[in-house]
Peptidase S54 rhomboid domain-containing protein (Amorphotheca resinae ATCC 22711), 306 residues
Amino acid sequence: MASCMQKMNGLIHLSRAQVWSTARVLIPVNPHTAYQSRRHFFSRTSLLSRYTPSPRVRRAQQSRQVPPSPSEPPPEHESNNNGGPTPYNVPNITIGIVISACVGIWGWHSMYLAEYRRTGSRKIRETLEEFNKNMVMSLRNIQEGRSYTILTSTFTHFNTLHLAFNMMTLWSFGRPLVAFYGVPTFIILWVGSGIAGGALQAYAWSNNGPYHAHQAVGASGSIFGMLAVLTCITPKAQVALFWIPMTLRASTILTVAFSVAAISQDWLPFLGHWDHLGGMAFGAFWWLIALRRGRMGPKSALRNFL
């Protein structure tokens, strides 16, 4: 009540025009006129400055932006299959974990093998035998109920050169797949291609010689599955096969042709040619039924990896 009396006392000393303009704000006579006088304080501009703009406004703002010049560096993020940004460290960390596991298993086995050769310890020999039963794929292990070795053998490498070649190839092919489709799809490709390649290799062994003479290790089947998917995505991307530049399509065709010729002519029998073909077949099949119609990042993301 006291505040109202003070306002009325202030109006006594004003002229008629001043009283009328002030009173229209205090007690609006025409609601439309009052709304127009208040519109300035609640305008769209003031609201957009305080809150997140709507999708329509964001699209309008983006349309007015100047596109970057070709000389500018690529952005720090590329879109993933979920529509959000995928930092480059996500593919690096994912593939780095797999490489660390492979290198760790190789280092553990190499250390124990060197110690056994130096000392001939019976305990170390038993440890290595258990390792071969659980981490090496062979028909003996499969027929004795250890079918999981088809998958665990993809993390095992005995030869340093074999390990280095597979890990460099995994680093090149695995990261763009994680950037395109995410970690779950990479895991499906790794597991599915490894199992498909190992199963096909074991089937070939069962029709060729004594089962105890065949064993296999390495991530080749999984890696060739990734090669098949990348070839389906962007067949004209440039890669280097044994340091020879060529497209992904050409490298895949040469790999398939060499594997088929090696199987028919019995070249390099210590290599898992059936494993390579089985891994590639699963990669192409999975792309066809699950990835071809799914959402994925732009193909320009491959430029950051290949």
Q: What stands out?
A: The chain has one domain: 87-304. The mean pLDDT is 78. Residues 89-119 form the longest helix (31 residues). The two ends are 78 Å apart (CA to CA).
